[in-house]
Amino acid sequence: RAFPWLPPSWVLIVALVAVAANLRPAIAGVPPLVPQIEAELHLSNAWLGVLTLLPVLCMGIFAPLAHWASTIWGSAPVVMAATVLLTIGSAMRLGGSNVVVLYTATLVVGIGIAVVGTLLPRLVKTLFPPERVGLITGVYMLAIMLGATIGAGLSDPLATALGSWEQSLAAWSLLGVLGLVAWAPLALVVWRHRAQV
Hints:
This protein is an all-alpha fold. Helix content is 81%, strand content 0%.
């Protein structure tokens, strides 16, 4: 292994999947709830469009920042910090009845997704031998797609079960917490060794 001090491969795969699963629910969960958001906040179609477009714009704007930060602190710790942002942004949506809070939370979520989504492919190539990169890439892409499917499919039932669209969107912060718990061992060991992983 290029970095013998890293956790076992299965720990890395679990961490990768746990974080990758967070990259779409916070986005995919919004469109099914747009009618409820529109009814409560009386937003125009243009502003509703911004709500769904903002995370996508962040992916383009903050990708260079992700690369820059990873050269200073290493990709794994930066992914940890970005997952914290994503989790906080999701939790902030609990106060989404305030328009400023809703859009600020969406921006924070978008930044977190942009940074994580930029660095995960690089980490796969760094952490795993070349002959396993294709398989691991497939695994984490599957986690992203499942996250998107679950986010879109459960957001409306969650709103019904929890009593509001705000609670439905904020519930995805729990998935972020799981991602943080799974990723922490990798981020800490990389930080300890000061390696550009």
